[in-house]
């Protein structure tokens, strides 16, 4: 009886420890979001929302696999936020270096101008000193008039020189800001610099395979994506892709998870049987082939995607590695 009581007490203690550990981990995720360095408000808000999504996965009776899944996602979010923040800091450093170079050039031009004016003033003052030793009042008056006129002229030149230098500096700073904004916009808009984040879909697939649950993946590949990028601006393509994904998601059950798998690929994780998913794929292709009308500078742009769809099933007991290989093979086949 004593042994049973000890065992029950120990189990209660372990259960309380588990709840406390999960709660502490959840609070650590919350604190990581609250105390994140905020260089960009939208970026920081997205980071906090991702951490909140990870917190939502935690439960008081979370098992080791759930904790490992959350930890993997947490590590990925930290790396992503660190990389983006580091890139912003690097851009800020370059901006500061460029501004420092402009100020240094400005200071050099002002200093050179002041040296010339200073030497002229010294000559005029020396002339006044020499005139002061003269006994001829007319010579002294003449020297004073001439010298004061030259000094006044030098002061006006100095004032004008400084005003021109300041105006030039303002122009250089304005041009520098324009170049910085243009460079940033070019980097952010360039298709090769935009990374597709498919971690949510990949993480969900990995989680379902670890749980050994049955599910299907409906994969949609846009075959003419590169051609559309050559015909339309980045803003039009970006808007059309968002509407494409929204239309895709709207045709599926609310339980389905939809995400962008690659630049030209979209994946939906379904709990339905493969046969039902195949029937659904025909309707998906038909509706996603309809034009998307986008607006750009007051003009309408029609974007027509050419999608192909396929379905792959994961059954309990299947090899996860083979499933991933089949999923890649399906993507390659649809893109061909």
Summarize the structure in words.
- The protein is 71% helix and 11% strand.
- It is an alpha+beta fold and 336 residues long.
- Among the domains are: 102-176; 198-336, Alpha-Beta Plaits (2-Layer Sandwich), CATH 3.30.70.
- It has a 4-stranded antiparallel beta sheet with strand order 2-3-1-6, sandwiched between helices.
- Helix 3 (64-132) packs antiparallel against helix 4.
- The longest helix has 69 residues, at 64-132.
Helix content: over 70%
In terms of per-residue confidence, which ranges show pLDDT below 50 for 5 or more consecutive residues? 186-195
Mean pLDDT, rounded to whole units? 75
Question: What is the name of the CATH architecture of the domain at 198-336?
Answer: 2-Layer Sandwich
Distance between the termini: 71 Å
Number of helices: 9
Question: In CATH, what is the homologous superfamily of the domain at 198-336?
Answer: Reverse transcriptase/Diguanylate cyclase domain
Cα Rg: 35 Å
Strand content: 5-15%
Spell out the helices and strands N to C: HHHHHEHHEEHEEEH
């Amino acid at each position: 009886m004593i042994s049973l009581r000890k065992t029950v007490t120990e189990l209660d203690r372990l259960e309380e420890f588990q709840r406390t550990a999960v709660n502490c981990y959840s609070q650590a995720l919350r604190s990581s979001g609250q105390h994140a360095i905020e260089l960009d408000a939208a970026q920081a808000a997205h980071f906090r929302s991702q951490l909140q999504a990870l917190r939502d996965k935690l439960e008081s009776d979370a098992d080791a696999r759930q904790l490992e899944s959350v930890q993997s996602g947490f590590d990925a979010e930290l790396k992503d936020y660190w990389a983006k923040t580091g890139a912003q800091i690097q851009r800020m450093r370059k901006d500061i270096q460029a501004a420092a170079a402009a100020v240094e050039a400005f200071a050099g031009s002002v200093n050179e101008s002041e040296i010339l004016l200073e030497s002229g003033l010294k000559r005029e003052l020396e002339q006044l000193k020499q005139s002061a030793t003269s006994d001829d009042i007319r010579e002294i008056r003449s020297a004073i008039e001439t010298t004061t006129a030259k000094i006044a002229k030098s002061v006006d030149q100095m004032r004008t020189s400084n005003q021109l230098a300041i105006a030039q500096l303002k122009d250089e700073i304005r041009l520098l800001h324009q170049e910085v904004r243009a460079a940033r916009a070019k980097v952010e808009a360039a298709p090769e610099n935009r990374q597709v984040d498919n971690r949510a879909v990949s993480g969900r697939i990995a989680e379902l395979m670890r749980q050994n649950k049955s599910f299907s993946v409906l994969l949609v590949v846009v075959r003419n994506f590169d051609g559309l990028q050559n015909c339309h601006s980045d803003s039009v393509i970006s808007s059309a892709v968002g509407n494409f994904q929204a239309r895709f998601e709207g045709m599926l059950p609310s339980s389905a998870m939809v995400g962008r798998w690659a630049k030209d690929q979209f994946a939906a994780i379904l709990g339905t049987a493969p046969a039902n998913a195949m029937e659904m794929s025909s309707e998906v292709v038909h509706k996603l082939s309809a034009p998307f009308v986008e607006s750009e500078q007051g003009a309408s742009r029609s974007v027509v995607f050419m999608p192909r769809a396929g379905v792959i099933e994961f059954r309990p007991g299947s090899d996860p590695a083979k499933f991933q290989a089949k999923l890649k093979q399906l993507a390659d086949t649809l893109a061909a």
